[in-house]
Specification:
Blueprint (H helix, E strand, L loop, with lengths): L2 H31 L6 H19 L3 H19 L6 H22 L8 H13 L4 H5 L1 H24 L6 H47 L2 H5 L3 H43 E3 L4 H14 L4 E7 L3 E3 H22 L3 H6 L6 E10 L2 E8 L6 H10 L11 H6 L22 H10 L3 E7 L3 E9 L4 E9 L2 E6 L5 E6 H10 L3 E3 L2 E7 H4 L14 E8 L4 E5 L2 E9 L13 E6 L5 E5 L1 H10 L8 H6 L2 E5 L3 H13 L3 E5 L2 H10 L4 E4 L8 H9 L9 E5 L4 H10 L3 E4 L4 H14 L1
Parallel strand pairs: 2-4, 12-14, 18-19, 18-20, 20-21, 21-22
Antiparallel strand pairs: 1-3, 4-5, 5-7, 6-7, 8-9, 8-15, 10-13, 11-12, 13-14, 16-17
Length: 730
Amino acid sequence: MSQNSEEEELLKIFLEEAKDLLDSIALTLQQWSTDLSNKAYFSDLKRDLHTLKGGARMVNQPNLSAIAHELESLCEALLSGKIPADKSTYDLICAGQDRMNLFIEALAANKERPAVEDLVQQFKQKVTQEKKSPLEDEKPESTLTEAKKEPETSSEKQKVDTNDVIRIKSELLEKLNNLSIENNIVRVNLGHHLDKFKTSLSETIRLVKILHDKLRTNTKAQELRITSDILGLVDTSKTLSQLHSNVESLLSQQSRISLELQERLIDTRMVQFNSVVPRLSRITRQVASNLNKKVDFSVLQAEGEIDRNILDHVVPSLEHLLRNALDHGIEKPEDRKKLNKPEIGKINLRFYRMGNDACMEISDDGSGINLEAVRKKAIKLGLLSQGTVCSDEEVIRYIFEPGFSTRDEISEISGRGVGMDVVNTIVKALGGNLAIESHYGLGTKFIIRLPFTTSMNRALLVAVHGQIFGILLSNVESIVLMEVKQIKETLNKKEPIVYNKKEYHLKYLGEALGIQERPAFSAEKESLPVLFFNFVDYNVALLVDVIIGSQEVVVQTLGPQFKLMDIFSGATLLADGKVLVILDVYSITSRTRRKVNEIVETPALIKKQPIVLVVDDSITIRTVTKNFLERHKYKILTAKDGFDALSKVEDQIPDIILLDVEMPRMDGFQFAEKIKNDARFSQIPIIMITFCTGDEEKQRAKKLGIERFMNKPYRENELLATIEQLLEKK
């Protein structure tokens, strides 16, 4: 190995170690900030700084070594009591930690390193400016020794713990985890096939027994020597039954081992959420300093683990939300004073589990979001029509539009809106959603909900109007059969129901998904299943038509085509190869509860809104298209096939039709032929959107007079432009 290669390898090792040491220093500082008088933290700081100083010297970084050395001296002075452990000392050490972080980041990126001389001088002055008392001169060593005694125990424990730690490439762990997930999918499918085999085998044994009993009383059959063959079948059936029992036992063992392996692999991916708290604290301090604002960053709750991959992806979004809170939320000290607010603003961080989700909240006590300013900007950008009546929640959602900002000048620090579309996209890509609560003049809260991890889960399979969906059982508190009479009364009166001394708002899943407004009550069914959910901010009871059962599933996030859909948390494959969509119950029910994105339709608004009929047998495609076009202010009608679409057209004539080809009862071509041959509807433009993109289909569409032919999956911008073009011609 050449000298350059050795130096590069040594630098790589040092950078990894330096990152761990700085994270440890930051965590210690965070803990120390809660009790500045506690000397137990000084030894840990000194030890990490000493290790960092030695490593910096090894890779020939004297400036980094110098700042670490002076900080180490500062910690010694704190331990001996030569300088007070007050806020100014804490702030000075935090400044040193921030500078070392910048130095390491620049070193890793091979950029110009920041200067350290100014801080080095401040550290030296801090140590020497404090006068020593006579008692201090007499026994500095004993004081230092006593101060070391208490933390030494934790130090030794730390050394023992770190001896058991080895470094493994994250890519390798990711591959192992993916293989384990695939193995679990195969195991689940194998279990289903084995169940089917058992059912078929039981039926075979039953039929053989019946045949054997009949042949025993049939003398002619005995003469034909069939009985011996039947007895052979009986023996074979018994053998197969024993083999099935053995395979079932082995599969049960393999299931236990596989799940244990999956859980252990998941453990390797899990990290404490509070490991990123120091980084977020540093960002807050730096931005507050740049803006000359005073802020108290408090971590109200940060205990718990989360998938490392998810955390790595979401941290930049958390940093952006913090910058937003400081730049746009927290007012300047003089402004806060005029508003009778404390000069020091507050930003709070919370992390907690809610069912199968990890939730992160960042809230501030600043000025909040100016809804009127957002509304005016939306109108200016053409996103909102003048005079349109929208809910506050819908107005707030406009800050997620690309390039949206209420400011004329965009700062480098942030822009509440500039970059928020990126934050929302990242959260959606991770299978989560981002909610906003804001009160003008009082503050804003951003709530990020993400899946805890991608792993095996148990899902409840429910049916609504003949369509099957999955709901993660970890989110369900209880399942109760409720009398139809009580359900009818509750739905009619729209009153909450009481269960376990708690009030729940009853919602029908079919109505929440836009499939069917009311359940199909029948005289045969005296009761229907109701699922109860306890969320942090409200309780809800969800009525479904049928509970099919439950099974283990591996939930995978959906692709970018579904980034605007917050009602789906993912999807999985069933044993028969069908795709099962997993519902996000919180998003579905909270949307219904708050009526987010619902426009109050005035007669003038209804006139202005073009009506689009979306005809597709896939509920997913219908919902995605409906949500996408509603965001662009179209009124949407949906139909599940051509037959259903005909009745919709009779009730209300649409301005344009988006049409699938392959559908039950009446396909797209049959529907288009009826529409084009009817004088009342022949002028309605049709866009055929299908996976069937052969020349034969295109020619047939052309003959029928269909205006446009597009491939699935469609591009949103292309579809929008095509709709606008055809409506203009019309």
